[in-house]
Amino acid sequence: MAPFNLGSTRRRLIFATLFAIAVGAALVSTWNFETGLPPDSPARNESQTEEIPIPETPWGRNAPEVQRHVEESRKSLEEIKTRHDAPPIALANAYGQLGEIYLTYDLPPGAIACFRNASRLDPGNFRWPWLRAMAHYTAVETADAYAAMTEALHQLEQDYSAGPEHHLAARCFLGDAALRLNMMDEARRHFDEAIRLNPNSGFAHFRRGQLESRAGQSELSIQDFQDAMTQYSASGVVPGPVCLALAGEYQKLGRDADAAKYRRLAETGPADFVVSYVNPLMTRIRLLNQSSSYLRQAAELDVSRGNYPEALKKIATGLRGSPDSLKLRMLRVDILMRLGRTDEALAELGEVRRLDVHGSTGRAQLCELYSRNPATRSEALAEALRWQSEQPNSLRPRLTLAAIYFQMEQYQQARDILTTSAREYPQELSPQIGLATAICAMGDYAAAVAVYDELLPKFPENAELRHNLARFLVTCPTETLRDPARALKILAELIAEDNSFDLQETMACALADAGRIPEALALLQDLKSQLGASEQFFKHHRLADLEKSFESGLPWREDWPFAGAEHSRFNQTR
Amino acid sequence: MHADPNIFAQEPPGNAVGLAVLIVLLIGTGCQQNSSNPSTDVPMKDVSTDAESQPAKDAALPTTNPERQPCPFHEASAATGLVFQHENGMFGERYILEIMGPGSALFDYDGDGDLDIFLVQGKSLDPTVTASNTASPELSMCHRLFQNDLTTDAAGNPVVAWTDVTVAAGLIFSDYGMGVIAGDYNNDGHTDLYVTCYGQDRLLKNTGNKTFEDITEQAGLLAEPAWSTSASWVDFDRDGLLDLFVCQYLEWSPAIHVPCESPWGGLGYCGPKSFSPSRSRLYRNAGGGKFTDVSQTSQIAGKPGAALGVVGADINGDGWPDLFVANDAMPNHLWINQHDGTFRDEAMIRGCAVNGEGSAEGNMGIIAADFFHHGQIDLFITHLKSEHATFYQNLGEGHFVDITANLGLDATTRPYTGFGTGAIDFDNDGASDIFITNGGVQIDPSQEREGIAVPLRQRSLLFHNVGENQPEFNLIQGCACLDYEETGRGAAFGDLDNDGDADILVSNNHGPARLLLNDAGQLRHWLGVRLIDGADGSEYNAYGAVAELIRPDQPSLTRRCATDGSYLSSSDPRIIFGLGDSRETGVVRVRWPDAVVEEWDRLTCDEYHDLRKGTGTRRNN
Fold first, then answer.
1. Is B27 on the interface with A (CB under 8 A)?
2. Fewest CB atoms less than 10 Å from the CB: which of A12, A331, B93, B435?
3. Is B524 helix (H, G, I), strand (E, B) or coil?
């Protein structure tokens, strides 16, 4: 080994490293001073060398799949612990992985212990205190969460694997937690830094604006809210909460016209807009969750995106852990029905009925599936009649029975049931729309329009009702009742609120009925390009039928709204 | 939303409430005030004395300036003879219904000048038990009426004692009750009750001879059985008769019950998103003891909402009563009165539909009170654990901004699921304080493992408002009868011992009613007023009137004459102004529901005054 030489490059490196460590230690001290946390706060207690025991989880009566998942991960940890040659970093990772599993199931005590142990073994890794902060936050321990994230922030500033997104998220988290803890100066400092890191952070601008509002600094507050507005609007969304915050500040200044302007603007934004920021470490944690409730929610999201194969996979995983989950099974039924896999749906419904003998789960779907096939319609009818006799005052069995009569083309029976239901449940729209449909089916189109016109003032904001009326006005077989101009107006209003596939399809029908066939065809092409390969098969069929009709220069006709290909008595003759 | 030829009823969208579960280990000692607990299942616990049982660390945050002062309340239910055990009807299915009730009413049923108590009861949800009990319900399974036999001791101190007068009052009804609201629908001077139920609600007419008569059918209030929760008597058309708003919660029945997973995958309680929200009901008082359902024509039924709380008050300051409705896991509704019998929901544009970040929360109990001494109604809503209770400041004309964090109410309320809540000036210093009774909606595994029948227990919260001109709240800590954990739901507020301060009645789910008597308020000066309308012999509370206390060099105090708000409960309509250490009573200005304004001065402090409409000095509006 070469003698220690102060002049060598290697020695300069060692010196630089030692200097960096010393500066780092000084920073730690400064940082804790800056947080203003009490001396016994968890942030100062991370120097423990002893292993922190993981608390036992009180599993309650039923949590088999979660318990199994946790225990498997815990077993992996114990295996690594028995390997005396395992490096500390491996053990830290095993603790971290177990902690993540606790965290994904909202079990913060176990998660906190694991992340503390991971920090003990891998003290420079910002991820462990970060995740511990999330666990504390889940446990509604905001002060502890703040302390842990402060520690993470310090560590990630020395960790070159951390990206700017981590710095920004840590600052947003700390600012938010400080605001909740009523630590306004600290909150201000973190949001200032977040904005310095990323001047386009809508969240930081919004939250800082709230701080300034509280301090009576309306002009500054308005500037920050405007900046937040600009950032969120850039993605094409009207951020309602930001609009309302701006309106509030303008009202305080007596600028009522500006306040009113932003209130009106807020009304045009999506009702579910939430001011938030991206937490890069939590995205992966959520994916670890294998509980049936989480998997069902994830599968529902897949369904909303039309990704049925992925949804079915998640459901299968969930059912392995919770075979009695009726909600998972009913979601599977729904998907199978959408995919036209009727036999499998029927088999699944059989299992649902076995699990819920005395309840109603799956009964409507069972009846619907039976009624789709003429060979089994008598079974559908028998089941629906049985259900109705068991629950004579319930609306659902009645609607189901009416729907079966529809399938059997026994419209008078359906109409009778729906007339009674509409009278007894005047606030429910479904029997009323059903009644209008039954009247159409019996050929009394003028009476049907009268029903729709009667319902509109009672349910002025109901989009389904307006859509049905618009559809009827452009597809009705009776020429004197068709009114494409009125329908186009209704549809334009509806599409401004919700540009859904079905509304656009009806718009194509309206354009065609108004003689604007090329525009209708162009819209159909656009719709076809929107449909994914796994989308509902009947949508493909419906578009194909419409296209065929329009290409022949003929508008579309239906016996009742959305009778479509299944009941195209008129269109089949073309 | 799309038009669909399929009119088959769909299964409700599945979505179990994904609540974080706080592990709370509870090992406590008995509350010193409660020597005879009526329920062996529900022992009162003082967790504040046990290091292992800290319910949540945020409750002890340095930022909240916890006050360790003598407890301003003591628990006195059993000691005063108020023995009642709520039955939630559970039998293992974990119906969402069983964890939502009950409420109670504080009202003077016999006109003797002190508040009596009506407690709402549930019943078994097990079909076999229900069938056997319907014909002749046992008293323990009925709503109960307790008469206040208020006396004074030798030293002149008030002594509260309760007599169960349920049978004598003709109140042997077995419902699955949820809440109750008191009001005088026929202006005869005798306070009536509307009991909300899962099933058919009841209008109970006070006959004036200490009995009640069920007049639901003859009043035209028979309706399709549903799930009613909170209600409000409010004269929305200003015709001098109280109309009735009834919150409807969910389209739920045992037949459509679907087992819901807990956040861990086991059997838990469903959240509201598992079922369709209902449409609330508005009944117009047509006079002659008849009501007309105007839900449709008023537009109230136009928007469904899982409604749990309601306040009928003039929110936008135009002189007409509006309706604020707290919806569970959905945006709230603020129905602005259009002066023509219709309402328009403006909650979203007025900033009180969702919280300041844009999140629709689990809205439950409501306070509608003036916290800023600005003559406007601010709103405070209780929410689920991991959300925070939300304080909406009224910026003027009914436009709101969420300032929860600014008031120190964010981190302190997040660990709890709040239900009943009220603005009471418990120490009569002139500033409205906040009480919240809490209880979870997702099973606490630790409590379940301990064998607690309803493992949803949480402590109560009392925030002391120490602000001068604007509110500033400190959490009161170390008070045994606030710290003990039960499954709190309803909370009613009123001066039960007529000593000039607000007492609290907490209704626990599947547990005892708790009476918290105030020991602090009577140590300061106060001024009590009862706002009265009507002719001699049939004088009645002027619900909807607003009283303002104006004193030189002091912020004015504005209070409503109302029984609504909180959760499922009905409070004392009398108004108490806390005067602090001053005996100065200044001027009391009353704005009556018909917009007439009158003033009274030279009222003596430390006593109640009846302010009759037409006897004050008239002022221009």
1. no
2. A12
3. coil
Tell me the per-residue pLDDT of B398-410, one tens digit each, with 9 for 90 and over. Answer: 999 999 988 989 9
Judge whether residue A235 has pLDDT over 90: no
The CATH class of B15-525 is: mainly beta
pTM, entire model: 0.74
Q: At what angle do helices A256-268 and A240-252 cross, to 10 degrees?
A: 170
Is the separation of the CB atoms in A293 and B261 below 8 Å? yes
Average per-residue pLDDT for chain B: 86
Q: What is the pLDDT of residue B67?
A: 55
Instruction: Please name which of A403, A484, A430, A445 lies closest in space to residue A570, comparing C-alpha atoms.
Output: A445
Give dist(CA A539, CA B118) in Å, integer: 58
- Cα(A99)–Cα(A284) distance, rounded to whole angstroms? 13
Three-state DSSP class for B333? strand
Q: What is the pLDDT of residues B284-318, one digit of tens each?
A: 999 999 999 999 999 999 899 999 999 999 999 99
Domain ranges of chain B: 15-525, 526-619
Angle, vertex CA B149, rays to CA B146 and CA B154, nearest 5: 150
> B526-619, what's its fold?
Immunoglobulin-like (2.60.40)
pLDDT at A129: 97
Tell me the pairing of strands B503-508 and B513-518: antiparallel
The pLDDT of residue B92 is above 90: no
B223 touches chain A (CB under 8 A): no
CB atoms within 10 A of CB A346: 18
Are residues B429 and B578 in contact, defined by beta-carbon separation less than 8 angstroms?
A: yes
pLDDT tens digits for range B453-490: 899 999 999 999 999 888 999 999 888 889 889 999 99
Q: B300, B349, B390, B395: best mutation site toward chain A, by most A Cβ within 10 Å?
A: B349
* ipTM of the shown complex: 0.79
pLDDT of residue B480: 85
Residue contact A271–B348, C-beta within 8 A: yes
CA distance B156 to chain A (A): 45
- Classify the C-alpha dihedral B160-B166-B171-B175 as positive or negative: positive
DSSP 8-state assignment for residue B477: -
Q: Give the integer Cα–Cα distance in Å for A147 and A170.
A: 12
B151-165: average pLDDT: 95
More confident residue, B38 or A286: A286
Q: Which of B267, B385, B401 is the closest to A140 by Cβ?
A: B385
Q: Do A107 and B403 make contact, defined as CB atoms within 8 angstroms?
A: no
The amino acid sitting at A187 is A
Tens of pLDDT, residue by residue over B306-358, are 999 999 999 999 999 999 999 999 999 999 999 999 999 999 999 999 999 99
- Count CA atoms closer than 13 A to A202's CA, side-chain side: 22
Neighbouring C-beta atoms of residue B513, cutoff 10 Å: 25
Pairing mode, if any, of strands B525-533 and B608-612? parallel
Rounded distance between C-alpha atoms, residue A319 and residue B599, angstroms:
70
Phi, psi dihedrals of residue A199, rounded to the nearest 5°: -60, -10
Q: Name which of B140, B148, B142, B146 is nearest B164 in CA terms.
A: B146
Are the C-beta atoms of residues A157 and A141 closer than 8 Å to each other? no
How would you class A283 by CB atoms within 10 Å of its CB: exposed for 0-12, middle for 13-18, buried for 19 or more? exposed
* Residue B230 near residue B181, CB atoms below 8 Å: yes
Alpha-carbon distance B283 to B382, whole Å? 27
